[in-house]
Amino acid sequence: MAPSIPQTMKAIQLTGYKKPLELNEVPLPKVGENDLLIKIGAAGWCHTDYQVWEGVYKSETPIIQSHEPVGTIVAMGPKAEKAGKWKIGQRVGYLLFRHQCHTCAACKNYDEIRFCQKADHAGLDADGGMGEYSIGDADNAVLLPDEVPFEQAAPLMCAGATTWGGLERLELPPESYVGIVGIGGLGG
């Protein structure tokens, strides 16, 4: 039996640059063709979110921040359902890129989907995960193991994916040693 889904939800919104975030009642996000509606279990707030708060990205406000959301699928669009990869009740996280065109040069090279001009970006130019529910793109979602708590999984949707992407590009065999030199959460 599908869970009861409300028409509105509570969400933490940025309503103006450098202003305190506000807890507001907002409409539930609409589920598009290839979307997953996720009941949020945890959502991270990273340096990029801080830059949105400062006004560096010139995001339109109000906006629900966080591009590090994880939770449980409660509904999905017809294209996502037809693909058969996802099921109601699965634990997932999603990356910030959503709704790419899948036809431009950036989309054809998966490593460059962030440059798709049709895409939106959770927490930057579209609502993100700091609400009771959020929309994730079925093509950019990842299944989470049951043994990984949501609080530990959320940062992996940004910092973890960024670091892992760099390691994948190296194409090293599993027994290789890697030295990471840098400062901060991604290189420290």
TrEMBL record:
Domain Alcohol dehydrogenase-like N-terminal, which positions?
A: 32-146
The record's SUPFAM superfamilies line, in alphabetical order, gives:
GroES-like (SSF50129)
Give start-end of the signal peptide.
none
- InterPro entries hit by this protein: ADH-like_N, GroES-like_sf
Fetch the Pfam families from UniProt.
ADH_N
GO MF terms listed in the record are: metal ion binding; oxidoreductase activity
> What protein name is recorded for this chain?
Alcohol dehydrogenase
Q: Which cofactor does it need?
A: Zn(2+)
What keywords is this UniProt entry annotated with?
Answer: Metal-binding, Oxidoreductase, Zinc
